[in-house]
Amino acid sequence: TPLVDKIPKEGKEEVDIHHRCFGYGWRMFLPCVRSSFSSVRCITRQEHPPPVSKAAMMYVYLLLAFLGYLVYQRSVRFANLSRVKTIVAHDPTLTKMETCRSAQLLTMLTDFPFLYTKSLEFGLYRTYAIPRISALLQHTRNLVDDEKVGRRYDDTDYILREAVERGGWSADQIANASGDQELLRGKRALERLNALHARWSIPNDDFLYVLSVFICEPIRWIQRYGWRPLDQVEKEVHFHTWSQVGVAMNMHSIPCTLDEMFAFNEAFEDKYMTLKPSNVVVSEATTRLFFTGIPSFMHPFGRQAVSALCD
After folding, report:
1. pLDDT at 40
2. Cα–Cα dist 293/148, whole Å
3. Cα(244)–Cα(250) distance, rounded to whole angstroms?
4. For residues 107 and 111, what is the distance between their CA atoms, to the nearest angstrom?
5. For the chain, first and last CA: distance in Å?
6. What is the largest CA-CA distance in the chain?
7. Measured between alpha carbons, how far is 123 from 127 in angstroms, rounded to an integer?
8. Fewer CB within 10 A of the terminal residue: the chain, N end or C end?
9. What's this model's pTM, rounded to 2 decimal places?
10. How many CB atoms sit inside 10 A of residue 176's CB?
11. 236 near 92, Cβ under 8 Å?
């Protein structure tokens, strides 16, 4: 063939090998054949292969960088989960406040800070759907009047963050940690929280339901929207952390296991979650707070998004 004639005699044997390999179907592999001929010419004429273009090398470097990024992310992505397991391994029963606090910070406030915060924000809507709770909130006007709702919301956020992040819910460890400002701040936050609720006659079951929302909703949201599911160890840490907060708030009959807490949450909602005017009044005030700074033309879409996320 013309292609073979262009090759010196000492290279024709290699070309014949290619012909025998491809047989009559060589036309289906024409690019491969041409590449082989090019290699033969380079070998027989002692030529150097054509240089690789800069664009091709750039793509190779980008591919290698991307692969390296994936390997790095895989190595550090689950680092906090490994640290949590190491922390819990030294206190499997989760009796120490520091064990729960340290592990909780790694999971909820480092790996899932956005989902953790949003789950608690939207968890408030579930409490508004309980007429006894919404009626009390409407009576106090703190979560109804537009000039008060923002401050009430921020106060709740700050106090709970201080209590959970700083610790201070264990009386024994507080007594043995004199001068520890972190623990003292957590202790004062819980004392303030108890003082705010002491002025109202609130049934223990209502306290337990709100506590169950703070325990169950973050787990549900992370399981549904998180970049990885929570490990059972992380769930238990989350449960024990908030259970100890409930004990510090003088709640009694707290469910002993996470499964029992989920069962209580669902049974309470089935029994008491009904539509009442006070539910709408309080939830509307919170929705208006969420829309602060959002253009008015986006409010209809925002309401649909809030409704969808409230399942």
Report:
1. 45
2. 17
3. 10
4. 5
5. 73
6. 104
7. 7
8. N
9. 0.75
10. 10
11. no
Tokens describing residue 112: 């899932």
Task: Encode the chain in three state secondary structure.
Answer: CHHHHCCCHHHHHHHHHHHHHHHHHHHHHHHHHHHHHHHHHHHHCCCCCCCCCHHHHHHHHHHHHHHHHHHHHHHHHCHHHHHHHHHHHCCCCCCCHHHHHHHHHHHHHHHCHHHHHHHHHHHHHHHHCCHHHHHHHHHHCCCCCHHHHHHHHHHHHHHHHHHHHHCCCCHHHHHCCCCCHHHHHHHHHHHHHHHHHHCCCCCHHHHHHHHHHHHHHHHHHHHHHCCCCCCHHHHHHHHHHHHHHHHHCCCCCCCCCHHHHHHHHHHHHHHHCCCCHHHHHHHHHHHHHHCCCCCHHHHHHHHHHHHHHCC
Q: Quote the tokens at residue 208.
A: 């337990």
Do residues 197 and 248 touch, judged by C-beta distance below 8 A?
no
Token pair 């992040």: residue: 165
Q: Which has more pLDDT, 50 or 209? A: 209
Query: In whole angstroms, what is the distance from residue 98 CA to residue 117 CA?
Result: 22
State the Cα–Cα distance between residues 137 and 131, nearest whole angstrom.
10
Residue 2: C-alpha distances to residues 5, 47, 300 (Å): 5, 21, 73
pLDDT in tens, 208-244: 999 999 999 999 999 999 999 999 999 999 999 999 8
246 close to 254: Cβ distance less than 8 angstroms: yes
User: Hey, how many other C-beta atoms are within 10 angstroms of the C-beta on 55?
Assistant: 8
Q: Which amino acid is at 255?
A: P
Cα separation, 271 vs 273, in Å, equals 6
